[in-house]
# Entry
Amino acid sequence: FRATAFSNQLLSIASVSGGFLAWQLLHASAIISPELLPGPGDVFNAFVQIVHAGYRGTTLGQNLLSTLGRCASGFLLACITGIPLGLWMGMSRPVAAALDYIVQFMRPLPPLSYLILLILWFGTGNTSKIALLYLTAFPIIVSSAMAGVRSVKTQKVQAARSEEHTS
# Structure
């Protein structure tokens, strides 16, 4: 087992190293313009510069917090709207019949296909980015909540309701 794990780690290291070597060789051969494919050293130097000096007047930490805030906002909005809707759809067959096709239509659509419309509607600020994250998470959350409700056995629901009435 240990020999296999060690050989797998070596294979992983060799694979990543091969990728970096191929990248460096492509850059050194100048087949692709350095503006389109900077070398690994150039990318590393730019990363170090951004860590120390920031990018366009903001630090890496500020950019990280801004990105995490947008992600959290989109996900929380999707949870706030998607969980109740999914629970409702799971408990009510007519509601599911009315809305499930719309939700299931949204699921396989690539989220980036919404991007142009969102930029036209909301601009390039945070609103369009949060809306994109919302639209990515919403159908998954609705479907999961609905599936969760439908997977609960009827006997358990009835038992919970009878316990509620006896208390």
Observations:
- The mean pLDDT is 91.
- The chain has seven helices and no strands.
